[in-house]
Amino acid sequence: MKKICKIVLTCFAISLLVLLGAGTTKAAESKVTGVKQTDASSTSIDVECDSQLGFSDYYILQLSNDGVSWANAAYSSSCTGLSEYGLNSGKTYYARIALADDSYGKNIRNYSDRIEVVTAPDTSKLKVYQSDATTSSISMTGVGAVGANYYQIVYNGRILGASRSPKVTTSVRLSPGARYWL
Q: What is the pTM of this model?
């Protein structure tokens, strides 16, 4: 009888340890944090997050057009270098990163908050011309940058003017009669 009790107690203790151990691992996992866009081209985006090392085999990047319907876009065993290609230029997407057991998306969990990401505009057909001038400022207009939503006049690395419309006027006083090669 003592032997049976000892076996039952040992089995119970092992079961308890297994259950507590498995529960501790899952409980220690939390939602993915620190999601940010790190780069973009006219057809791609790069996203990364804070590392959740030790808790997952894979990070899954998910993209959405509306923030409701999500599609798995990319996966990696690292939280850096998650990229998606073949996107539309100058378009805003929603992105989030989750943890998964494998690259097929098994057991996706711990979703990050969604962020907005944007591809760069297609500037291959961009034409820029001077559209106005005063003695101390110039205006430049850009046409043909599909998807552009912000424009700047930059001279020697210094921003002279910026606008959300294609017409940008310098906000910095320029020298009268001077030439600026932009």
A: 0.66
